[in-house]
Design goal:
The complex is a heterodimer of chains A (about 140) and B (about 525). With about 140 residues, chain A is mainly alpha-helical. Chain A has one domain. Chain A has six helices and four strands; from the N terminus they run H-H-H-H-H-E-E-E-E-H. In chain A, helix 1 runs antiparallel to helix 2 (about 35-55). The longest helix of chain A has about 30 residues, at about 110-140. Chain A is elongated and about 55 Å long. Chain B has about 525 residues and is mainly α. Chain B has a domain at about 265-500. Chain B contains 22 helices and two strands. Chain B has helices spanning about 1-20, 25-50, 75-100, 100-105, 110-125, 130-150, 155-185, 190-195, 205-220, 230, 240-260, 270-290, 295-315, 320-350, 360-365, 365-380, 385-400, 405-430, 445-455, 460-480, 485-500, 500-510; strands at about 55-60, 70-75. In chain B, helix 7 packs antiparallel against helix 9 (about 205-220).
Chain lengths: ~140, ~525
């Protein structure tokens, strides 16, 4: 696809969509959203970029191989269960940490967010692994 | 203890993730696969050790109290099945080091095997029906990819049937789960077991029960839903078939035994005769299909079906002895059948073919393999002193005690036909002369060189990787036969825990109920 409009739109929309996906990830803690839907949005941002400019530039834009992202995401999600184990609680128990920050005050940070981040990365990796496989197979065939 | 209950899920997950990260290095993938398999085996042994005294271990994930959160529960039945998973997983992983080709390994064979093992372990561990559904899906998705990995045409043909039927089964499982939740407000097995006695005439419960029966029946390849299995199991590489035959249908049987002994016990006057018919028909159709086959892997695939029928006798007779026999039988048949598939893989590796009429003479060229096959085959057919004999003895005795004479007769007759079809493999593959070898010894030299050209020589290390897991499995079936009394003590206790779920309920929900 070689539409000029699409190419220019993709260049500016992909970073915006990625930012929006981060917003969804963080918002998901107390409101609709979360790692899964955020990951889907981020993956579709890169998929959009790939459709406008081709899979090879999209891979360069992403920098990381999707399958590695998938593996790292799973590891991050897994490690979210570990603090609970160290504290002697059942696996995956939510653990909280309340650092006092200037200006913001007490910021509740917990393992559920860390877990969600893992889901976010794993979903991006998973969707893009499949997406690139399909797009690149199509390129070979045609 | 805390970590031990999640270990059978975490270890394969970590192994899968690590081998995905290190996918460029074959050496790393192989070592991770073997270490992961050993780790699973260690954790399964410690879990069985913890459950052996009859206590039930419970872990509330995320510290959410049952029945609201997800619980992992290990009673003896789960612990035995987990040990089975680990043993077969490790055996197949070691075998795969030699038997899986490089392109398949590059595409991620080992991570997929670990994901499959994780799904199977999760299904055996969970104490929650929806969570069981999730683990079924994990297992199925991995099995879909393993089935088509390599992308040969016949693989895709087999996979279409497998995927369609299994997705249908999953949909039924999900609908049944939804109905059950709508009716009872819980999917925790312990609280369902508590409720099941109170509400005998309940349409929604019956609909769920039938949907679960059909769904698990498809997954376990019970008559009349068995036809997908022989059509798809012989197409992937042999280690994949061995893994599937050892574990996937057994998860279906496990789910049937778990739900129909703990939850759906409100109308046994209806379910018991139904299971009698299903067990008998599954045994008969499976073995008749097997006798008619002329290809080793297809023949063995039909035998999976017929053996599932035996395991169903446990639910058909529904006495402690019958359930205990069915658990013992499930353990026995998974090991013996996996061993037989591994034999078929060795035959395929050295002869390039598993069609019975095209091969022969392995008695002379591979005596050790022949001995191992004979032991596994006799055990499967149910001759003493191997594990198959004690498994069938317990089931037939339970049937006779309960007055199910026809079922017991069918079980015995099917045993004879099993022996017959095993002897068919023995005669064709091992005993008769190689049909491709030129007759007469006039041109001895040219005959041997022709034979040498056809028989792919295995390097001694590859041969060891083929034989070692096979020998271990065969040894295990022999040990299960010799130490039958010890194993039966476990399975008796496991059956009691299923039939009297009070202990399970107390362990999960806490407090005297």
């Amino acid at each position: 696809m070689s539409s000029v409009i699409l190419r220019i739109a993709a260049r500016s929309l992909t970073p915006l969509l990625s930012l929006a996906s981060l917003f969804l990830l963080l918002r998901g803690h107390n409101a609709p959203g979360g790692g899964f839907i955020g990951g889907l949005l981020a993956a579709s941002a890169i998929a959009f970029y790939a459709m406008a400019l081709g899979p090879a530039p999209a891979r360069r834009w992403l920098r990381i191989v999707p399958r590695t992202l998938l593996a790292v995401g799973l590891l991050v999600a897994l490690s979210a269960g570990l603090p609970a184990l160290i504290a002697g609680r059942p696996f995956l128990t939510g653990m909280w940490w309340h650092p006092e920050l200037p200006f913001i005050g007490s910021l509740p940070l917990g393992t559920p967010l860390w877990f969600d981040l893992g889901v976010y990365l794993a979903v991006i990796g998973f969707v893009l692994t499949i997406f690139f496989a399909l797009v690149e197979a199509e390129g070979e065939g045609g | 203890m805390n970590l031990l209950l999640v270990a059978p899920i975490l270890i394969p997950l970590v192994a899968a993730v690590l081998s995905m990260l290190l996918r460029t290095s074959q050496r790393a993938q192989q070592s991770i696969a073997v270490i992961g398999g050993m780790g699973m085996l260690t954790s399964a042994i410690s879990l069985l050790d913890a459950a052996a005294d009859g206590s039930i271990q419970v872990l509330r994930l995320g510290d959410w109290p049952a029945p609201f959160g997800i619980v992992l529960v290990v009673d003896l039945f789960s612990a035995l099945m987990l040990l089975l998973t680990a043993v077969i997983g490790l055996a197949v992983i070691v075998y795969s080091l030699a038997a899986i080709d490089l392109p398949r390994r590059r595409f991620g064979y080992f991570p997929l095997v670990h994901v499959l093992l994780m799904g199977v372990s999760g299904a055996f561990l969970t104490g929650d029906l929806f969570n069981l559904f999730v683990w079924f899906e994990v297992m199925l998705i991995a099995s879909f990819v393993l089935l088509v990995l390599g992308g040969e045409q016949k693989q895709l043909q087999g996979a279409v049937k497998y995927v369609t039927l299994n997705l249908l089964a999953s949909a039924m499982f999900l609908i049944g789960t939804g109905l059950l939740y709508g009716k009872t407000g819980t999917l925790n097995l312990a609280s369902l077991a508590m409720l099941s006695g109170t509400d005998a005439e309940n349409a929604a419960l019956n609909v769920s029960a039938v949907l679960f029966l059909a769904s698990f029946g498809i997954k376990a390849a019970v008559f009349p839903f068995f036809f997908w299995l022989p059509d798809s199991y012989h197409v992937p590489p042999v280690p994949v078939t061995a893994l599937f035959s050892g574990l996937l249908t057994k998860v279906g049987i496990y789910a049937l035994m778990r739900t129909f002994s703990m939850v759906f016990v409100h109308d046994t006057d209806f379910t018991r005769p139904l299971f009698v018919v299903l067990a008998a028909m599954t045994m008969i159709t499976g073995v008749i299909g097997a006798v008619a086959q002329g290809e080793m892997r297809r023949l063995l695939s039909f035998h999976i079906v017929s053996q599932i029928g035996y395991a169903l006798i446990g639910l058909a007779v529904f006495t402690p002895l019958a359930l205990s026999g069915a658990i013992y039988f499930t353990l026995h048949v998974a090991i013996a059948k996996t061993a037989l598939f591994l034999v078929a893989g060795y035959v395929l590796a050295v002869r390039g073919d598993t069609t019975l009429k095209n091969i022969g003479g392995l008695l002379r060229s591979a005596p050790l393999l022949t001995a191992l096959f004979l032991l596994a085959a006799i055990s499967l057919a149910g001759l003493p002193p191997f594990s198959g004999f004690f498994a069938k003895f317990a089931l037939v005795k339970a049937g006779l005690d309960a007055g199910e004479f026809l079922l017991a007769a069918v079980a015995l007759a099917v045993g004879v036909l099993t022996l017959f079809s095993m002897m068919k493999i023995w005669n064709e593959v091992f005993w008769k002369d190689d049909p491709n070898a030129p007759a007469g010894d006039a041109s001895e030299a040219s005959a041997s060189s022709a034979a040498a050209a056809r028989i792919t020589p295995l390097t001694s290390s590859a041969r060891l990787l083929y034989i070692l897991p096979l020998a271990c499995l065969v040894l295990l079936t022999v040990i299960m036969g010799i130490a039958a009394q010890g194993v039966f003590e476990w399975t008796d206790a496991a059956a009691r825990q299923l039939l009297e779920p009070e202990q399970y309920i107390r362990a999960v929900l806490g407090g005297p109920q």
